Amino acid sequence: MAEPISAPISEPIPLQTQFAVYASGYLSTSMSNMAGMIIPLWVVLTMDPSAFTIGVIMGSRHFLPAILAIHGGAMMDHLGAKRVMLVFAIVGMIVPVLYPAIPWIGMIIILQMLAGLATTMSWMGAQTLIGQVMGGNPVHSGRLSSAALLGNLTVPLIIGAAWDHLGVWGAFMTMSLWGGGMVVAAILLPAPSKELSRGTDKINIRDFIPRLSGYLEAFALLSVPAIAVVVMVSVMRNTTYAVRSSFYVVYLDSIQFSGTEIGFLMSAAGSLGAISALLVGPVTKVIKPVILLFITVTCAIIFISLTPLMATFWQLMVIAMLWGASVGMSMPLMFSIMARAADSKSQGKSVGIRLTANRLAASGLPVLMGGIAEITGIGNSFLVIGVVMLASLGGVALYAQRVIGPPKE
Question: What is the pLDDT of residues 180-209, one digit of tens each?
Answer without folding.
Answer: 999 999 999 887 665 554 545 566 666 667
